[in-house]
Amino acid sequence: MKQRKIPMRTCIVSKEQLPKQELIRIVRTKENVVVDLTGKVNGHGAYIKKDNEVLDKAIKSNILGRKLEVEIPNEVYEELRDIINK
Prior knowledge:
- This protein has helices at about 50-60, 65-70, 75-85, and strands at about 10, 15-20, 25-30, 35, 45-50.
- It has a single domain, classed as YlxR-like (Hypothetical Cytosolic Protein, Chain: A).
- It is globular.
- The protein has three helices and five strands; from the N terminus they run βββββααα.
- The strands form two sheets. The chain has a three-stranded antiparallel beta sheet.
- By secondary structure, it is of the alpha+beta class.
């Protein structure tokens, strides 16, 4: 039986290559910025590791805002924290 390939993505904060399931995708659409749990939303996306320390570093350095070239609302960071703490 053929082994399935595991999709790997890079966290924009820690620069680690991890399986897609261990990351959260944040997408800049034409209207706003959304957290994409399905991985299928159209738009410019960036991945962040499911870790509170990585999220704190992302908030402090505003790396998401720079990568997506848009201001990230606090609601998005709160939603990310809720997802990580589940």
